[in-house]
């Protein structure tokens, strides 16, 4: 739309109606027609014809001087003396507030995006530029001039208004001060503590207004520079607000303590959208909603240096997603993978007590009902060298120390485990413990987590056995046997334990660790190893076992978390990967890590610029799509074939005599022309990464890249009886195309495909392709101090990390267009009161346009979108300055008015107070007068009373003794009554004591009587038992001499007279059969037994009752024990009588039975005599 469009028809319509009509017209037009924009004021809503336009295929860089020094041949001087690049590259020199360079970006020769369909936003490309010189584009010159004018305007504005600025202090720290005066190129700065400082104008940086201190999003800063960003982050950090947005990136500063920002309440707040503060929960919620709403897979990319809190941030994101998609139960298993991966993949370093020494990508799959239905974990580049070697003050992987400290006695005995200080692999770094960390407790948590992810106890013991084998491998020692430094393994406890734990033979193990077999034609030659070769072979075996064990464990976890039939293809990936690393000594691990960060940085730039441009286009502002690629030159240095770093590194592996020094020389020879590469002395080289220069030492590059493991070691693992060594060998065979080669460096070119760097490159390309198909969300973790203590904020360290992870560049890229933006409603509410006319009933868009017109905001400094206003750098700060001045004026007027009103109110109060005081004083005077009159009357009455003192005294003397005497008599009567009552009570007490003594005597006599009677009954019962026993002896065969014994059971019994005749012979009984006699005998014995049992029971019952009576008597209970004693006595007499009757009857029956038995033998004897006579 042109700015010259007639405005007459639109005069009667509001801006909101115009915008709606424009949207309607846009929808009716063909799709290839650009969208119609809302009608804007003439020359206000559109950029001028010579506005700054970003060229296609250009990128921004920040250090122009460095680029000039790198390649001065590509720069020439124009007639004005300004530097211009030959191939249309432009340089913006923006005095003190920053600089930008738009450089043509070359696509790398090999890219993970080649196999993917190109995005529309990256398809627009300009025509190729040939190598010949061409004149500078006039449009570009106009853009340069405009940019310089804009920056000069900002600079002059800050200096003219004498605003606060940042200046570099003598101690190299940034200080905030206020400009007092400017003299030439010098400025006098007043610091907050009152100290004055003179600095050069070109060394000043503008500061933001206080309203922008500690903003949620760094893009909101009007002036973007390093001290402003550091100050904003610090303002939030000191208040325990550790999350800040930097455009689409979340910056997370490690607090090194627990902060109240997590838990169910916060999860509910972000889930219900009741808060929008920057947080990991907000990033995870945005990813979850985007996946469910749009059906597009999401990714959360977490990076940062060691100790910045990447692992904890990843766990926080997983916890939020588990809370959103929980319910299936698998989310608990997913969370329990963290202690397992930390134990086997994390270690203590000099910078972090729990540093992840591997990268991981966790895919969390969701069902159609938004529930977690499975997960998959992929790992990258485990630092195997840490198993056998590390720096002083560092530890190996946590699991070794946890096993030595927390293994139960049975497992310790089975594995022959010892303390950690007994193993060479662990004690070499002089660091065995971590402060405030209990390794034994962590081991128990590890075993619990393994149980939860369904790793059986048998498999756990196998894993621990392999870990113990790795530890014992480090204790294997060698003995030099000749002058050529050849060695043999010393037979020791370590060798025996390794062979036992791995399930191999001791001679095979010793031979594998001291010799190599070489195939020479049809013959096999055994070559003895030197001491360095033998140690390298031993360490390579230990590293391979641990690496394969780690991979097998991850596979087992993935099987436990495997997605079943609920797979929908929807997932959220969480990438927890190492950040940019730069140490005093950087080796092969840092080389691969920083290469991965270069790839991630390019992925980050692509998506960052894409999202920024989409917002511009969706809001309908003028914008030219820009393809931004900033680190292709560094990526080409790594990936270019055949002269890239990775290609040359793999090529050097094919030479048997290659060393780390020959590798360094080859790199210098072939890469000296690359601007990102610098050769150094003693086998070192530098690489200019996007985050800074890093010095690498080639020592160990070839060995770590080749990852040597001789075929003899693989054959040893295959020959083991245990399952895990065999699985390790199978994995090693699958990873190599030529696994049986006897050489650890193969001569064929195909072996290059299997170097560590090449495999890592392949993993990285697959990762990039996977992430490219997702919507990314970036989290950059920052470590605030090197001491790992809370409350400490080191500006230099934070700034270094911001540069390394590209946060400052992110904000610069986001601010390259219109970094400050507000919705029409927000803008109208904040600045609407500045308008001179009444806008109460106008729509927000009309109010916003009126504000822009009133304050003469230049058209090129803003654009009006459908829903937002977009401003260039500094415009919000200028409006904020006007707003602050207006607010100060309003406050001054209010202050003056309040003062006038207060003085008027004071005068009114003073008049009222004076009238009130007059009334009170009159009342007090009247009251005082009344009191004086009362006092005079009282004195007069007193005088009258004093005239009759004697009469009053006599009356008092007569009345007082009478009253006292009556009280005394009454007291004496009460005393006598009390004494009588006490005497009666004492007499009653004596009676009770006498009755108690009498009761005790009666109870004692009754006890003696009962004891005698019980003794008599016991004697009678004993006599009955003896009688029964005698009858039994008579009935036994062959006992003819047995005679019954007659006893008198009781003195009162008369059973003896009834059982015998006068002659003493037994009465005759009717003859019965032998069977009947036996039955009668059994019945009689049973009758006696029942009597004895009844006697014992009754005896016990009476003893218990008597004991209870005694206890009741002693306890002083209110019940009458003598009545109970009488009842018990009558009951005992009745039972005794009845029991005597039973005894008498039983005795008669026994006597009859005894007489019959005495007669029966005689009959048999006579019978026998008759037979003999016959």
TrEMBL record:
Region (Disordered): 25-51, 103-136, 1051-1083
GO molecular function: actin filament binding; ATP binding; calmodulin binding; microfilament motor activity
InterPro entries xref list: AAA+_ATPase (IPR003593), IQ_motif_EF-hand-BS (IPR000048), Kinesin_motor_dom_sf (IPR036961), MYO1-3_N_SH3 (IPR057535), Myosin_head_motor_dom-like (IPR001609), MYSc_Myo8 (IPR036022), P-loop_NTPase (IPR027417), SH3_Myosin (IPR004009)
Biased segments, Basic and acidic residues type: 103-124
GO cellular component: cytoplasm; membrane; myosin complex
PROSITE patterns: IQ, MYOSIN_MOTOR, SH3_LIKE
Entry protein name: Myosin-1
Biased composition range(s): Low complexity: 40-51
Record SMART domains: AAA, IQ, MYSc
Originating species: Elaeis guineensis var. tenera
GO BP field: actin filament organization; actin filament-based movement
Residues covered by the Myosin motor domain: 213-884
Membrane-crossing residue ranges in chain numbering: none
Residues that, per the record, bind ATP: 304-311
Biased composition (Polar residues): 1051-1064
Keywords per UniProt: Actin-binding, ATP-binding, Calmodulin-binding, Coiled coil, Motor protein, Myosin, Nucleotide-binding, Repeat
Coiled coil stretches, renumbered: 975-1009
Region of interest (Actin-binding), ranges: 764-786
Family stated for the protein in its record: Belongs to the TRAFAC class myosin-kinesin ATPase superfamily. Myosin family. Plant myosin class VIII subfamily.
Residue intervals of the Myosin N-terminal SH3-like domain: 160-209
């Amino acid at each position: 739309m042109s700015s010259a469009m007639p405005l007459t028809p639109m005069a009667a319509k509001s801006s909101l109606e115009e915008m709606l009509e424009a949207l309607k017209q846009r929808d009716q037009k063909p799709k290839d027609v650009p969208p119609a924009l809302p009608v804007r004021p003439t020359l206000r809503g559109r950029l001028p014809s010579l506005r700054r336009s970003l060229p296609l295929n250009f990128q921004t860089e920040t250090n122009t001087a460095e680029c000039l020094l790198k390649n001065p041949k590509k720069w020439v001087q124009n007639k004005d003396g300004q530097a211009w690049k030959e191939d249309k590259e432009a340089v913006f020199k923006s005095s003190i507030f920053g600089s930008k360079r738009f450089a043509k970006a070359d696509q790398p020769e090999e890219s993970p995006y080649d196999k993917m369909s190109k995005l529309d936003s990256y398809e627009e490309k300009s025509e190729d530029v040939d190598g010949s010189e061409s004149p500078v584009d006039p449009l570009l010159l106009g853009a340069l001039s405009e940019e310089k004018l804009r920056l000069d305007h900002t600079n002059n504005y800050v200096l003219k208004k004498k605003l606060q600025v940042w200046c570099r202090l003598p101690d190299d720290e940034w200080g905030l001060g206020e400009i007092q005066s400017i003299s030439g190129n010098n400025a006098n700065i007043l610091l907050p503590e009152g100290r004055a400082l003179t600095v050069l104008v070109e060394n000043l940086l503008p500061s933001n207004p206080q309203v922008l201190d500690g903003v949620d999003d760094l893009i909101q800063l009007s002036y973007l520079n390093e001290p402003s960003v550091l100050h904003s982050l610090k303002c939030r950090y000191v208040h325990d607000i550790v999350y800040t947005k930097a455009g689409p990136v979340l910056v997370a500063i490690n607090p090194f303590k627990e902060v109240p920002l997590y838990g169910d309440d916060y999860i509910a707040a972000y889930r219900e959208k009741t808060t929008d503060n920057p947080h990991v929960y907000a990033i995870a919620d945005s990813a979850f909603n985007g996946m469910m709403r749009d059906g597009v897979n999401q990714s959360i990319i977490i990076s940062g240096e060691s100790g910045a809190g990447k692992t904890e941030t990843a766990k926080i994101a997983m916890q939020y997603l588990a809370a959103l998609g929980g319910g299936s139960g698998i989310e608990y298993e997913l969370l329990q993978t963290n202690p397992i991966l930390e134990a086997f993949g994390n270690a203590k370093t000099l910078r972090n007590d729990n540093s992840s020494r591997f990268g991981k990508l966790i895919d969390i799959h969701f069902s159609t009902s938004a529930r977690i239905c499975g997960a998959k974990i992929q790992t990258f580049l485990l630092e195997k060298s840490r198993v056998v070697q590390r720096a002083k003050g560092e530890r190996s992987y946590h699991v070794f120390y946890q096993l030595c400290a927390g293994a139960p006695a049975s497992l310790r005995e089975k594995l022959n485990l010892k303390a950690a200080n007994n193993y060479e692999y662990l004690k070499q770094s002089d660091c065995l413990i971590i402060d405030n960390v209990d390794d034994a407790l962590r081991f128990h948590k590890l075993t619990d987590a393994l149980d939860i992810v369904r790793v059986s106890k048998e498999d756990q013991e196998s894993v621990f056995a392999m870990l113990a084998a790795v530890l014992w491998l480090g204790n294997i020692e060698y003995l030099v046997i000749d002058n050529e430094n050849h060695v043999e393994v010393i037979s020791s406890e370590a060798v025996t334990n390794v062979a036992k734990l791995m399930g191999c033979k001791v001679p095979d193990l010793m031979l594998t660790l001291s010799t190599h077999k070489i195939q020479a034609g049809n013959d096999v030659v055994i070559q003895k190893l030197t001491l360095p070769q033998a140690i390298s072979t031993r360490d390579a075996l230990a590293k391979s076992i641990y690496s394969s064990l780690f991979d097998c464990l991850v596979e087992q976890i993935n099987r436990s978390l495997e997605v079943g039939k609920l797979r929908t293809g929807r997932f959220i990936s969480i990438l927890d990967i190492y950040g940019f690393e730069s140490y005093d000594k950087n080796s092969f691990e840092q080389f691969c890590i920083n290469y991965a960060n270069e790839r991630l940085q390019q992925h980050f730039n692509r998506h960052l610029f894409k999202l920024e441009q989409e917002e511009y286009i969706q809001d309908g502002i003028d914008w030219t799509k820009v393809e931004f690629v900033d680190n292709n030159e560094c990526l080409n240095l790594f990936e270019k074939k055949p002269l890239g770093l990775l290609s040359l590194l793999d090529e050097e592996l094919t030479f048997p005599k290659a060393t780390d020094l020959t590798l360094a020389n080859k790199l210098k020879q072939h890469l000296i022309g690359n601007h990102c590469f610098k050769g150094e002395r003693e086998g070192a080289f530098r690489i200019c990464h996007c985050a800074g220069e890093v010095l690498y030492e080639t020592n160990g590059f070839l060995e770590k890249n080749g990852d040597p493991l001789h075929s003899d070691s693989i054959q040893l693992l295959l020959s083991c009886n245990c399952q895990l060594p065999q699985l390790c060998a199978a994995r090693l065979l699958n990873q190599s195309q030529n696994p049986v080669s006897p050489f650890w460096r193969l001569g064929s070119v195909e072996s290059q495909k299997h170097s560590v760097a090449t495999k890592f490159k392949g993993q990285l390309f697959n990762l990039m392709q996977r992430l490219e198909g997702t919507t990314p969300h970036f989290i950059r973790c920052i470590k605030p101090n090197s001491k790992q203590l809370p409350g400490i904020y080191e500006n230099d360290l934070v700034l270094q990390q911001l540069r390394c992870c590209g946060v400052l560049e992110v904000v610069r890229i986001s601010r390259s267009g219109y970094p400050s933006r507000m919705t029409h409603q927000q803008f109208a509410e904040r600045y609407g009161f500045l308008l001179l006319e009444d806008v109460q009933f106008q729509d927000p868009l009309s109010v916003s346009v009126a504000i822009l017109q009133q304050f003469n905001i230049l058209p090129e400094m803003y654009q009006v979108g459908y829903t937002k206003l977009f401003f260039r750098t500094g415009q919000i700060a200028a409006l904020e300055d006007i707003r602050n001045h207006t607010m100060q004026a309003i406050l001054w007027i209010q202050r003056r008015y309040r003062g006038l009103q207060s003085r008027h109110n004071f005068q009114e109060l003073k008049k009222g107070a004076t009238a009130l005081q007059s009334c009170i004083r009159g009342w007090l005077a009247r009251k005082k007068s009344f009191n004086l009159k009362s006092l005079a009357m009282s004195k007069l009455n007193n005088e009258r009373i004093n005239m009759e003192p004697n009469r009053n005294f006599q009356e008092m003397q007569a009345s007082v003794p009478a009253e006292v005497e009556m009280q005394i008599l009454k007291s004496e009567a009460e005393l006598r009554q009390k004494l009588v009552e006490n005497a009666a009570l004492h007499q009653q007490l004596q009676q009770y004591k006498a009755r108690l003594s009498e009761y005790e005597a009666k109870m004692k006599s009754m006890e003696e009587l009962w004891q005698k009677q019980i003794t008599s009954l016991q004697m009678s019962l004993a006599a009955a038992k003896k009688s029964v026993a005698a009858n039994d002896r008579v009935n036994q065969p062959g006992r003819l001499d047995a005679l019954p014994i007659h006893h008198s059971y009781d003195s009162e019994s008369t059973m003896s007279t009834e059982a015998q005749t006068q002659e003493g012979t037994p009465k005759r009984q009717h003859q019965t059969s032998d069977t009947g006699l036996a039955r009668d005998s059994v019945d009689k014995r049973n009758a006696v037994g029942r009597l004895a049992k009844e006697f014992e029971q009754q005896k016990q019952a009476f003893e218990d009752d008597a004991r209870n009576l005694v206890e009741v008597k002693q306890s002083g209970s209110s019940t009458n024990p003598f009545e109970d004693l009488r009842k018990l006595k009558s009951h005992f007499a009745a039972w005794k009588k009845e029991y005597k009757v039973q005894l008498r009857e039983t005795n008669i029956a026994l006597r009859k039975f005894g007489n019959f038995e005495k007669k029966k033998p005689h009959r048999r004897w006579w019978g026998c005599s008759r037979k003999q006579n016959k």
